[in-house]
Amino acid sequence: MKRFTCDELVEVITAYLEDALDRSARDGMRAHLARCEGCERYVEQFRATIGVLGDPPPEKLQADVRDRLMSSFRERQRS
Fold first, then answer.
1. What are the extents of the domains in the chain?
2. I want to staple 26 with a disulfide (CB 3.0 to 4.6 A). Which of 21, 62, 70, 74 is the partner?
3. Sign of the CA dihedral 54, 57, 63, 64?
4. What is the pLDDT along the chain (79 residues), one digit of tens a residue?
5. Would you tell me how many other CB atoms lie within 10 Å of the CB of residue 66?
6. Rounded to two decimals, what is the model's pTM?
7. CB 24 within 8 A of CB 1
């Protein structure tokens, strides 16, 4: 099972939510989320954002919108 840091989780969150990670990575993400309240909250915020936006895949968002969202999530994670 892959072990994730909080920063690594941020980088692969969309793959996790799209169920595009291999089993080892998916299990590692779940283990990290089970022990990290901040990351668990981050994932829920990301899911809520996707719900509000109508579920467009991040790669289909305009680049500036995607960059602003990702920057906001990263800043929130650090605080």
1. 6-78
2. 21
3. positive
4. 889 999 999 889 989 988 899 999 999 999 999 999 999 999 998 888 877 776 555 566 677 877 787 787 777 666 5
5. 15
6. 0.64
7. yes
